[in-house]
């Protein structure tokens, strides 16, 4: 028996021949060990897509290669034998980008950049097989990739340029209307309302300037690998072996018996198809026993497809994608189209390209088990002990009994789909409550009988025979299915009855912004829509994040986390963990230096001052709290060992919810925060014609930054430290590191190159969850230590946006004018204070939203619970405040019989009025944004069209909502200062150091543009240098939407200081080049460097001493469509007008607007943080926590930057901050859906569900509200 024991594959242009490699090593770990760090590790479960690569497989019979996308984090390395792996680095680099990389980077489709390589490779895989895809095929290819920054619009726009629609029109146009390209449209009014093009420039990207895509120039399958494959055609078995795992991959089934005879009695044998699921399960388990895998991914018999007129044979090693292809090629594909649709609904094409139908079937989870059950799939199994071949049919008892029949050395070899009696198929897949995936497949037969299979209602799929689909609920009740489990069934049935049409891509975008008018001879770039500074590095995989850094002698750390929410720690046993080969040490609270502290936030200069412990101290107070950590030679070993640490607990009763905290009087402060304006509202409600009161609960929200918390701590000479960390506040990280070790800050240099997203989650203490433990470990071991949290660790160990429970009472007069309001808000701070009191202060201080309430009182309570400590998140309390107020306003408007948007317009506060916090509204144009938004959306016409649509449509309804946002900037003198260092080098280039962190928000490119303008230099002569606390000390946290204000002001001040001396010399030597001027300045000892402390100006330019100096405002008109039979909804159009002053960079600002809107949209419609009654987090992974994808982007997404300079005298080139304000507009989606539901009835009782519906608007909630109103 010939057996090859060398793993052979190519990665890009490099050949690898490996022996004794760990067979269950993942591809992503291998790639990263070889320096190919473009494949990121965002989730380790094949959901985020940041690790996407392309795999090429050579077909010996057809003499061609097929390319698929795959998740490198799931793929076991043995699966890649004789494959061609293509990574993002292999198709281009910043100097010579592939067209996919170029269009994504220059088309503004990359912000933090962590997800960008994955998107690039997903699109690249599609183009390798289909050079001119349809737009809907592009969406399908991208749905397995997540982005938290961009809102997806620029990604889709960039990639739609490759669509078949654009094959013959320049390089392509993503925003086509009526089949025309944007470069050749006949008149500006094709896109834009009359008159706007006289004022605004349209379109951030000129696609005609890009290189054309030529599919003939792609990488070829390596000829050397083809030769190797041809030589190995007669090989029998491929095998890999290490101490713990042996894998055999037989070429045909006849060799399997030989393998089994070789194995010793008692060997733990796993028969696998791809090995992907087994590796995933074992990685999560505590199992370290040796095992043997027999993988059939190369087995010829199990990879066959046979298409006959009335049956389809599918080999057991075929992937779900290959099964889908087989159905689509069948002569019966018309009657199978709904089953093809169901397979297309699989969560990720990258996973489906590798996951096999057998693995899916035997898991009993997902779509294929229901499909197999409805089709009565005929499965052929072979027993290698007896040589017996038998047939199993997937019937009602299959999932209960198959383990007794497919056991030991019995495997599935293939299956047959019998189509002889199939007449019609139906399918549906639904997620009524976001964590309760259910599906249905019905097969109607020619003899009048039918089979309906359902999954997600019980442990195993259910089969119901010869029952009409409309009678399913009655039948399932007979089977004892609880009513609460059947809540989503009506939606599922209704969806199954709908025809599944292949929808053509419909995507229109528009960006309007003020054109710049640079004077001749001036190089300044302020106002230009330039790409992100690192965009080319993002899309080529060249950008390095903390985890990508290569540090000599580096160890890796994994956290040991609490499995209880509230308990005493009785004992911690690390003995089994420390026995594992490669484990170096365990650390906990006892390893903190004597002069150090376990609670660094108690230092008076900590931002914020707070009480979060690094390690649990004899008591755990939250599920997922850090108890200790394992340090090992690799991350994989550390994580495996951490699972072997045994912790004994004495359980205590946890406080989980806000209601629990209120009952237990568990608060962070003795007294609540109270603000009021005008008279006591209780005395004024009697003057109101209409009053509403009630409560609304707003769930928490995960930051879902793509790069998890990460840090590398490197001990240097003489007690000094270099710390690489993903933080929004290098200064705070430096302070905390110093007090943890009990040394001076001057001994510590914190370096931050970039962040893979932040959104507030890396602003304060929570970025220390990785860094602080790694620091203590590195100090103990005197070696560099890296800690990169897994997605699970990140989600259970850190908190997010504070859940809020709001009580409201709001009243108006007969015209709709507000008179009085009384509000109470309770926020869930979690187990430690973090910045909860600051967040609560923001909730109360902005509780009036965008409105003027003459008599208002707002009371806020900070609740302490045994859940993860919540922290800063984009909007910082204002999303909660805005939503509670808007919720009350919407309800009041409907009670008063006034359109909600009319009610809002009537009550908007205006410039000069006073807010609840006592500050005057300054530099504010909300009313102008509102009016311009109505024009952009053509509001009046839109309202009429929606009313007509709703009158004529029976199952679909549309709704409209207009809301506004008002965000005050800046945030107080302490946070309004920055130190910058501007250095002109002798060759005329310029380096700038700031303390602000680039996390995707475009801070660096805006700072470069300010410097370019102030120095009058081409921007390519200037660069931003990474954050380092040894250059720029004591800089406030990067957040609050004011980074460009404070750093831009300081940079301008430094440049002006330099040019005060160089400027006159430049005039004197006006015939000389800039480089000559710099050389002469040096010779005359004129300073070429300036270190400047910049304090954003207030009183000195006529501003107030405290409170907001200006307000960034905006308005949105959102239209949605709902299916009243299923509860699904779609964003039809979103029109946003935002006042950003004179934008420093329209592309960056519009990107922030779109991304912010979609982030809040997710919060309103799908994202939810759920705990069980014991305080265990249930939404603990991207698999369990739903995020918006490319599928959720509006059909029409239009954004206009209002032409309106910031008149505040201290503003940086008349600009305004933008990061958080547009997030508040995403709440409009909630009210638009509510508006669509409301179209079903003119009146309803106070207790109606629609009156109390809360976010997220799950399909079940929407359908429940619709059903009630239809009655």
From TrEMBL:
<dbReference type="GO" id="GO:0005506">
    <property type="term" value="F:iron ion binding"/>
</dbReference>
<keyword id="KW-0520">NAD</keyword>
<feature type="binding site">
    <location>
        <position position="48"/>
    </location>
    <ligand>
        <name>[2Fe-2S] cluster 1</name>
    </ligand>
</feature>
<dbReference type="Pfam" id="PF00111">
    <property type="entry name" value="Fer2"/>
</dbReference>
<dbReference type="InterPro" id="IPR016166">
    <property type="entry name" value="FAD-bd_PCMH"/>
</dbReference>
<dbReference type="InterPro" id="IPR036884">
    <property type="entry name" value="2Fe-2S-bd_dom_sf"/>
</dbReference>
<dbReference type="InterPro" id="IPR036318">
    <property type="entry name" value="FAD-bd_PCMH-like_sf"/>
</dbReference>
<keyword id="KW-0274">FAD</keyword>
<dbReference type="InterPro" id="IPR012675">
    <property type="entry name" value="Beta-grasp_dom_sf"/>
</dbReference>
<keyword id="KW-0408">Iron</keyword>
<keyword id="KW-0560">Oxidoreductase</keyword>
<dbReference type="InterPro" id="IPR008274">
    <property type="entry name" value="AldOxase/xan_DH_MoCoBD1"/>
</dbReference>
<dbReference type="Pfam" id="PF00941">
    <property type="entry name" value="FAD_binding_5"/>
</dbReference>
<dbReference type="InterPro" id="IPR002346">
    <property type="entry name" value="Mopterin_DH_FAD-bd"/>
</dbReference>
<feature type="binding site">
    <location>
        <position position="367"/>
    </location>
    <ligand>
        <name>FAD</name>
    </ligand>
</feature>
<protein>
    <submittedName>
        <fullName>FAD-binding PCMH-type domain-containing protein</fullName>
    </submittedName>
</protein>
<dbReference type="InterPro" id="IPR036010">
    <property type="entry name" value="2Fe-2S_ferredoxin-like_sf"/>
</dbReference>
<feature type="binding site">
    <location>
        <position position="149"/>
    </location>
    <ligand>
        <name>[2Fe-2S] cluster 2</name>
    </ligand>
</feature>
<feature type="binding site">
    <location>
        <position position="147"/>
    </location>
    <ligand>
        <name>[2Fe-2S] cluster 2</name>
    </ligand>
</feature>
<dbReference type="InterPro" id="IPR016208">
    <property type="entry name" value="Ald_Oxase/xanthine_DH-like"/>
</dbReference>
<dbReference type="InterPro" id="IPR002888">
    <property type="entry name" value="2Fe-2S-bd"/>
</dbReference>
<dbReference type="InterPro" id="IPR006058">
    <property type="entry name" value="2Fe2S_fd_BS"/>
</dbReference>
<dbReference type="GO" id="GO:0016491">
    <property type="term" value="F:oxidoreductase activity"/>
</dbReference>
<feature type="binding site">
    <location>
        <position position="1040"/>
    </location>
    <ligand>
        <name>Mo-molybdopterin</name>
    </ligand>
</feature>
<feature type="binding site">
    <location>
        <position position="728"/>
    </location>
    <ligand>
        <name>Mo-molybdopterin</name>
    </ligand>
</feature>
<dbReference type="GO" id="GO:0071949">
    <property type="term" value="F:FAD binding"/>
</dbReference>
<dbReference type="Pfam" id="PF02738">
    <property type="entry name" value="MoCoBD_1"/>
</dbReference>
<feature type="binding site">
    <location>
        <position position="43"/>
    </location>
    <ligand>
        <name>[2Fe-2S] cluster 1</name>
    </ligand>
</feature>
<feature type="binding site">
    <location>
        <position position="874"/>
    </location>
    <ligand>
        <name>Mo-molybdopterin</name>
    </ligand>
</feature>
<dbReference type="GO" id="GO:0051537">
    <property type="term" value="F:2 iron, 2 sulfur cluster binding"/>
</dbReference>
<feature type="binding site">
    <location>
        <position position="112"/>
    </location>
    <ligand>
        <name>[2Fe-2S] cluster 2</name>
    </ligand>
</feature>
<feature type="binding site">
    <location>
        <position position="115"/>
    </location>
    <ligand>
        <name>[2Fe-2S] cluster 2</name>
    </ligand>
</feature>
<feature type="binding site">
    <location>
        <position position="876"/>
    </location>
    <ligand>
        <name>substrate</name>
    </ligand>
</feature>
<dbReference type="InterPro" id="IPR001041">
    <property type="entry name" value="2Fe-2S_ferredoxin-type"/>
</dbReference>
<keyword id="KW-0500">Molybdenum</keyword>
<feature type="binding site">
    <location>
        <position position="759"/>
    </location>
    <ligand>
        <name>Mo-molybdopterin</name>
    </ligand>
</feature>
<comment type="similarity">
    <text>Belongs to the xanthine dehydrogenase family.</text>
</comment>
<feature type="binding site">
    <location>
        <position position="73"/>
    </location>
    <ligand>
        <name>[2Fe-2S] cluster 1</name>
    </ligand>
</feature>
<dbReference type="Pfam" id="PF20256">
    <property type="entry name" value="MoCoBD_2"/>
</dbReference>
<dbReference type="InterPro" id="IPR046867">
    <property type="entry name" value="AldOxase/xan_DH_MoCoBD2"/>
</dbReference>
<feature type="domain" description="FAD-binding PCMH-type">
    <location>
        <begin position="240"/>
        <end position="422"/>
    </location>
</feature>
<keyword id="KW-0001">2Fe-2S</keyword>
